Amino acid sequence: MLYYLIVALYVLVSLVLIGVILLQQGKGGDIANAFGGGGSQAVFGARSGATLLTRATSVLAALFVVLSLVLTAWGQRGAGSVVGGIEGPAPVPPAALPTGAPPAAPATTEPAQPAATSPAEGAPGTTAPPPGSVPPPPAGTPPPPAGGPPPPKL
Description:
With 154 residues, this protein is an all-alpha fold. The chain has helices spanning 2-23, 31-34, 52-75. Helix 1 (2-23) runs antiparallel to helix 3 (52-75).
């Protein structure tokens, strides 16, 4: 609640600071001074006493900087992520096994062993492998190593 009050004050200070700056009169910024017509004034205009608008600008600028630093420090204390406070899905309890039933054996993923011999391709009485399948290697070649590409032929 206090955070939103500070944000509202920050926006209000910003808008009033913009208004105060726009209300101030320029100091010797007319076209005559650009070409040397205002010889008696300094480069940025004659120095005048501090008016109410210049005082208000100084106070509002200081307040703007202080509120910026407060909001920046306060914003760093939040959660590191948008979903930081959200819990994951509830764990699913394992299905109860009937008493006396042995647990199921885990499935194994062993590669299929190629046939020891294969008929020559195109020989009479043989059929073509189904599309997308890899034909077995010729007899007498070592199997490729597990988990990698086959060795290059020399």
